[in-house]
Amino acid sequence: MIRVRELTKVYRVPIKQPGLWNSVRSIWYREFREVRAVDGISFDIEPGERIGFLGPNGAGKTTALKMMTGLLHPTSGEVAVAGFRPQDRHAAFLKQITLVMGQKQQLLWDLPPLETFALNRALFDIPKAKFHETLDELTELLDMKDFLDQPARNLSLGQRMRAELAAALLHRPHILFLDEPTIGLDVQVQADVRRFVAEYNRRHQATILLTSHDMTDVSAIARRILLIDHGVVRFDGSLADLSRKFGGGRRVVVQGPLDRLAALGFVAEEGRCVATVDRDKVNELLHAVLQVVPSADLTVEDPPLEEVIRRAFGEAREKHAAAGGAR
């Protein structure tokens, strides 16, 4: 479905020297430096997969996403999406994909969502019967019946986001590129969006590529993680594999007195006592806790995804620095 080989994007960025004379001089003579936003990444995504495409700010993930959707041309390398070269922006390719960005909107501000939907039907040449079938399905899944005929400017942020999702999916794309889809939404609407994306994937076997800084989005939607930093893929695998590699062990959580557990390595965290140990040391620690507090309420869990990702980013940066900033 998506095939990426040695994909690279290099920008030429002008060097701005301080001072008035250098500003005048730059009119005739400009110096540039190269910035490798994406540095030879390769991966394959199969139909129906749900991918978390993660990285810190400036890691290159949005640049890569834009090349996969054809908004940017790669400097070198190859990318194929649904059998098309994205940068050609072929009409048949555009009918296969959609790009949803949490900070962007396509609804017409003074018109109700139904008017925008009608415009999209014409743009994508969707047959009327299929359009109404899809709209009915999306209206039910996104609970939009009560506001479709209201001007977009009168809708709440959550209502607008649900209508934005519907507008992006009216042509029933097989590949969804989601860039921070829940940013700025309240907790309930975030949950609704996550549920909807998972259900759309189940009903239509759509491929999902998600970028998000909200780890709840990632854990709820993604089943495979592509971790990118400094323009390079640093990890490719399941959430469980990511936790095993970067989680730093298992967390033992105890509801008990810290003064009696501190000697075992426990620290206070949100009213609980928490210690992280290697997986093969868990039983030993549990036994030690019960010796100190026989009636302790114990839980063993994986580290939070935020902590796992933070460790992964830290290791990626250490390797990058050790290599002198080279790939």
Summarize the structure.
This protein is 38% helix and 26% strand. The chain is of the alpha/beta class. The protein starts with a strand and ends in a 5-residue tail after the last helix.
**What fold name goes in the CATH topology slot of the largest domain?**
Rossmann fold
How does the overall form come out from the CA principal axes? Answer: globular
Strand arrangement within the widest β-sheet reads 5-6-7-3-8-9
Q: Tell me, what is the CATH class of the largest domain?
A: Alpha Beta
Decide which structural class fits the backbone.
alpha/beta
- The number of helical runs is 12
Mean pLDDT reading: 88
Task: List the uncertain runs.
Answer: none
Helix content: 25-40%
CATH homologous superfamily grouping of the largest domain = P-loop containing nucleotide triphosphate hydrolases
Q: State the order of secondary-structure elements, H for helix, E for strand.
A: EHEEHEHEHHHEHEHEEHEHEEHEH
Largest sheet geometry: 6 strands, mixed
Distance between the termini: 27 Å
Number of DSSP-assigned strands: 13
Strand content: 25-35%
Description:
- With 327 residues, the protein is an alpha/beta fold.
- The protein has helices at residues 20-25, 61-68, 91-94, 113-123, 128-142, 157-169, 187-204, 215-221, 239-246, 258-261, 282-292, 305-322, and strands at residues 2-14, 32-45, 50-54, 76-81, 97-101, 175-179, 207-211, 224-229, 232-238, 250-255, 267-269, 272-277, 297-301.
- The longest helix is centred in the middle third of the chain and has 18 residues, at 187-204.
- It is globular, with a radius of gyration of 24 Å.
- The model has no long low-confidence stretch (mean pLDDT 88).
